[in-house]
Specification:
The protein has 244 residues and is mainly α. It has ten helices and three strands.
């Protein structure tokens, strides 16, 4: 995948699409960065809370509206998750434009953006302009980082993470036991790539489940009255000796 071409094509599409507002573009860029982090995988899992924070979206309804709009406008394909402990899945669309820049075209703004996500590791002859072609990003990465977040070190690491995020420690135990039993694989048998993101999604679903099953204030304050209430509202002491 050519990072610069993909980003440049997206910007060109944004320019001519009057349906988009800043929130759509902000969410798309957050998803693009997740796509880039997954090395442009065909499909990848996302965490709603992290995306909302990256895109500066404060409302869940706004997030769902924007991601649904982007799906219907063919910027991506959205696979919502019905599993409370599994994140939704995204498939980014490859945007094609008829006016893609020539190979020798130089754009300093795009170069700065590329360096922000992929710092150049090798010596550049001329720091203001690439020597040939569109070699804005080095293809050699000698400082490859190892992903240490696929699986937690042990159960205590999970509990420490839950406590650090102000989550319920008991939920941390349930989370660890559940995925330890499944050998840290998703329900479709794929290895977990980031257990911390999965833990955040676990708590999001748990909080949503608790809210749906939380009793109302009236029921909580008078539980006996609801249990003993006679819905027919009839008197229980009757005198059958009286004539009708």
């Amino acid at each position: 995948m050519n990072y610069i071409k993909l980003l440049n094509s997206a910007f060109s599409a944004f320019y001519f699409d009057d349906r988009l507002n800043p929130t759509h573009i902000s969410l798309y860029m957050a998803l693009f960065q997740e796509w880039n982090s997954s090395r442009f995988a065909d499909e990848f899992f996302v965490n709603r809370r992290d995306l909302m924070r990256a895109a500066k979206i404060g409302s869940k309804s706004t997030y769902h509206r924007c991601v649904t709009d982007l799906d219907s406008w063919n910027y991506l394909t959205y696979f919502p998750s019905n599993n409370p402990y599994k994140g939704s899945k995204i498939k980014m669309s490859i945007i094609r434009t008829s006016d893609e820049p020539a190979m020798g075209h130089y754009d300093p703004k795009l170069e700065q953006l590329a360096e922000q996500y992929h710092p150049i590791r090798e010596l550049v002859v001329n720091q203001h302009r690439p020597t040939s072609g569109q070699a804005l990003v080095s293809t050699i990465n000698n400082n490859k980082q190892v992903n240490n977040t696929k699986q937690p070190k042990d159960k205590q690491a999970v509990l420490d993470f839950f406590i650090e995020k102000n989550y319920d420690a008991d939920e941390g135990k349930k989370f660890f036991d559940h995925y330890q039993t499944n050998n840290w694989k998703t329900s479709d048998g794929k290895p977990i790539r980031d257990w911390q993101a999965l833990a955040k999604n676990w708590m999001d679903r748990t909080e949503l489940f608790d809210q749906k099953n939380k009793p109302s204030k009236k029921q909580a304050s008078h539980p006996d009255s609801y249990r003993d209430e006679d819905n027919l509202r009839t008197t229980k002491t009757k005198d059958y000796g009286q004539p009708l």
